[in-house]
Amino acid sequence: MFTPKAVIFDFFGTLVPNFSLTEHKAVLREMAGLVGAPPEAFVKEWLATFTPRVTGQYPTVAANIEAICAVLGVPAEASACARAVALRLDYSRQHLTPRTTAISTLRAIRGRGFKLGLISDCSYELPTLWAETVFAERFEVAVFSCVAKVKKPHAAIYRQAAEQLGVACTECWFVGDGGSNELAGAQAVGMYPVQFYDEAEQGQDTHRVDGQGWTGRRILDLAEVLPLLAAAPQPIVR
Question: Cβ distance 55 to 149 under 8 Å?
Fold first, then answer.
């Protein structure tokens, strides 16, 4: 364990719970119905476009829906597409509620002089809604993969967050649930990775992309980050 100056968090599955895959697919089927697409085919294409979606290849949610409609041979009428986008944003908004100890933990970390950063593999729903969330004011830096055009575990997204925070990667801790192989990615650039592990989200119905097994440091509650930081050398505040 080394001297940290910043703590960087993952978002989905860490600060907020992961989606239920069953619930997620139900919303996708509803979106399909709004644009007149075959439900199961729409669900399949939506899940298949995860990587281009979260690396910004679709500049808007509407563009992603239109691309899927084109593949399925369905005309994407503007009004129907707009209703599907609104449904998607509403669904996303419902899943921005922080875990019980998330906000108090972030407040305590900042209070102890550490910088706070966020790295999220996400599509444009999250940056679109970010200012509405209780998280926006807590973070000095928020890096969204769809804006950065690169996703975890690529080294560039970690380095971008560290650079914007004004620290070296080796001065950062990274806390995440392990989706997108993010812990190994953080470790590869010199960050100290800590896994947040929610036992209730380990079943087959959790929507997690590229989850990884992890044998390193693990916490079961976000508040457990605080005693770990207390045991580490304190940052030099300039």
Answer: yes
